[in-house]
Specification:
By secondary structure, the protein is an all-alpha fold. The protein contains twelve helices and no strands. The protein has one domain: Orthogonal Bundle (Urease accessory protein UreF). The protein is globular.
């Protein structure tokens, strides 16, 4: 039994690793805009931005992940539509779709699964967009991952994406960025606890600053990242 649980954990770690072919490394989540505008320039600024993003996803994407763990076919469609509707900025929405679709193909290559295949078929048919949070939740369900671990890994992946992008966009070293990531643990845990105690009836977040910076990204004079 322990060996089986270890195998599940190893597969989940593989799915959220930066080497897994989702293309997430090519997205800064708006950090590039903040850095060029000189709003986020220090490790402290980066830590605050990550905390803000985690607070936002606590009532959006993390609730989607949690709901996807037990979603039936009709609910999967609902979660996909809700993801699309909640992402106001085009770059944020397209980033979620691109990462989600690539993750789905790669996960299915590792482990065939009926609900994951259903989602893939709906995407192919044009009835679903294929969002990252939905795919993550479905993949965790296929692996038998318990809810808290499913949410922790999604939130952790968000934080690692930001610290990895910061190395290319800011005057910050690996030691500093890892310190920021380590300190983000409290905000990650808080976001997960919020998501675990909320339902789709509580879904929604108001973060106009994050949305505006994401929208401004496509008009930047120079860009290293897709979003």
């Amino acid at each position: 039994m322990m060996l089986f649980q270890s195998r599940q954990l190893l597969l989940l770690l593989q799915c959220i690793d930066s080497a897994f072919p989702t293309g997430s490394f090519a997205h800064s989540g708006g950090l590039e805009t903040y850095a060029q505008a000189e709003i986020v320039t220090t490790a402290g600024d980066l830590a605050r931005l990550i905390a803000m993003k985690l607070e936002s996803v606590a009532k959006t994407d993390l609730i989607i992940v949690h709901s996807a763990l037990s979603a039936d076919s009709a609910q999967i469609l609902q979660l996909d539509n809700l993801c699309s509707a909640s992402k106001v900025a085009k770059e944020t929405r397209e980033s979620s779709e691109k990462i989600g679709r690539r993750m789905l193909v790669s996960v299915l290559n590792l482990m065939p699964n009926e609900r994951l295949q259903f989602y893939q078929d709906e995407i192919t048919a044009g009835r679903c967009a294929g969002h990252h949070a939905v795919v993550h939740g479905l993949a965790c369900a296929a692996l038998g991952i318990e809810p808290r671990a499913a949410l922790l890994t999604f939130a952790y992946a968000l934080a690692t994406n930001q610290t990895a992008a910061s190395l290319k966009l800011m005057s910050i070293g690996q030691t500093q960025s890892q310190a920021v990531l380590g300190a983000a643990g409290e905000a990650i845990e808080a976001a997960v606890e919020t998501a675990l105690t909320h339902t789709l009836d509580d879904f929604g977040s108001f973060t106009p600053g994050l949305d505006i910076r994401a929208m401004q990204h496509e008009t930047l004079f120079r860009r290293l990242f897709i979003s």
